[in-house]
Amino acid sequence: MRVLLDEHFSFQIALLLRDRSLDVEAIVERDDLPEAPDSKVMEVAAREQRAVVTNNIKDFRPLAAERLASGQGHAGLILVPANRSRNRAATGALTDAIEALMRAHPDGIADAEHWLAPAA
After folding, report:
1. Is residue 17 included in any domain, yes or no?
2. Full residue range of the structural domain in which residue 110 is found
3. Which residue of 77, 95, 100, 113 has the fewest CB atoms within a 10 Å radius of its CB?
4. Which 3-state string (H, E, C) describes 11-37?
5. Pairwise CA distance, residues 6 & 85, whole Å
6. How far apart are the C-alpha atoms of 114 and 14, rounded to whole Å?
7. 50-109 pLDDT, tens digit each
């Protein structure tokens, strides 16, 4: 599985996951996507076959549904609940959760969504 972290997530998560031999990019690291509309993020992620990790559920779920309805499809959504902490102290736990999902689905999650469990 290949992953693109939405702009709300630290590039540190991408670095940690790459250190674990996983294919992860963060929007904040790229020249073409910072401050891009969510529709462009979905388009680029689909083209690159990267599932989008986001907590912007209200915008990305409808975009994914529109792509499916139009026959375009998408590379998947990894949804992070709003009540899951995203501060520095929680970076390790979030990184571990993303890694576990990526390893459980090495061939990707095309046209599907997966929720990360709320942090305990």
Report:
1. yes
2. 2-115
3. 100
4. HHHHHHHHHCCCEEEEHHHCCCCCCCC
5. 15
6. 18
7. 999 999 999 999 999 999 999 999 999 999 987 765 666 678 889 999 999 999 999 999
